[in-house]
């Protein structure tokens, strides 16, 4: 009886761990996106992960579709891929953060593998862009993965109340969150601000050091002058004696 009481719970726990492992494996098998920030209005770097091919066939191309609320994007160069931005005309011109007029937007970014990415090997593709100001908005990035044999369209979106893990080919997505008062722009812009602060601090330190060196040199010159005058007075005293 003791053996039964011990064995059955152990088997149950093992089965539960197996289910969790399978679920985690299924989730990691998706083409997914990982943003470095989701703050509204911030400049973010989105990293897309390509973890496998199409039913065993190596990946040759990955086309990432851009949401309409994202007019501009800067792809990160990956040495294993060539990259192309596909643009389309806007129905109405827009203004960017600097007041410049935008008449077209990047509708798609296409990465083409220089050497097909073998199934079972992972690579990442990164895009830099500014997130919209709409807090709570979900940005969806449908991806078409083309392989030597076949293709997979990661373009499914969950219905209201549906879990994304229930989808066979979910599209990579993120939800825009509220920006903090201190780091509204986040990402690359925040890093630039920190770099500027560091440079200013170094310049101030250099100025302080320069002032200190100037005072020291001035004191040295004054001391040498005093010694010279003292020697001259001593020499005159000797002559009078």
Total discrete domains: 2
Query: What is the count of DSSP helices, taking H or I runs of 4+ residues?
Result: 2
Q: Within the largest sheet, what's the order of strands?
A: 5-6-3-9-10
Roughly how many Å is the radius of gyration? 32 Å
CATH topology of the largest domain: Immunoglobulin-like
- The averaged pLDDT comes out at 77
CATH uppermost class of the largest domain: Mainly Beta
Silhouette? globular
Query: Which CATH architecture of the largest domain would you pick?
Result: Sandwich
CATH superfamily of the largest domain: Uncharacterised protein YcnI-like PF07987, DUF1775
- β-strand amount: 25-35%
Note the gap between the termini.
123 Å
Reading the helices and strands in chain order gives: HEEEEEEEEEEEH
Question: What would your notes on this structure say?
Answer:
With 241 residues, the chain is α+β, with helices and mostly antiparallel strands. The protein has two domains: 29-183, Uncharacterised protein YcnI-like PF07987, DUF1775 (Immunoglobulin-like); 186-241. The protein has two helices and eleven strands, in the order H-E-E-E-E-E-E-E-E-E-E-E-H. It has helices spanning 2-28, 187-240; strands at 32-35, 43-50, 59-65, 74-75, 81-95, 101-117, 123-130, 138-140, 143-147, 151-154, 173-175. The strands form three sheets. It has a five-stranded antiparallel β-sheet, with no helix packed on it. A hairpin with a 5-residue loop joins strand 5 and strand 6. It starts with a helix and ends with a helix.
């Amino acid at each position: 009886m003791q053996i039964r009481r011990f064995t059955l719970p152990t088997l149950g726990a093992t089965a539960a761990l197996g289910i969790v492992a399978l679920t985690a494996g299924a989730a990691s098998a998706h083409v997914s996106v990982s943003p470095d920030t989701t703050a509204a209005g911030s400049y973010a770097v989105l990293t897309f992960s390509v973890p496998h091919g199409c039913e065993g066939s190596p990946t040759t191309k990955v086309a990432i579709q851009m949401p309409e609320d994202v007019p501009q994007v800067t792809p990160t160069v990956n040495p294993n891929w060539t990259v192309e931005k596909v643009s389309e005309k806007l129905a109405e011109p827009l203004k960017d953060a600097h007041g410049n007029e935008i008449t077209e937007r990047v509708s798609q970014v296409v990465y083409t593998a220089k050497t097909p990415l073998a199934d079972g090997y992972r690579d990442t593709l990164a895009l830099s862009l500014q997130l919209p100001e709409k807090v709570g908005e979900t940005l969806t990035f449908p991806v078409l993965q083309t392989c030597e044999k076949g293709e997979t369209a990661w373009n499914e979106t969950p219905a209201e109340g549906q879990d994304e893990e229930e989808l066979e080919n979910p599209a990579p997505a993120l939800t825009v969150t509220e920006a903090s008062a201190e780091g509204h722009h986040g990402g690359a812009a925040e890093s630039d601000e920190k770099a500027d602060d560091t440079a200013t601090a170094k310049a101030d330190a250099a100025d302080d050091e320069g002032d200190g060196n100037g005072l020291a040199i001035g004191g040295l010159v004054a001391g040498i002058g005093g010694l010279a005058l003292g020697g001259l007075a001593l020499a005159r005293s000797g002559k009078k004696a």
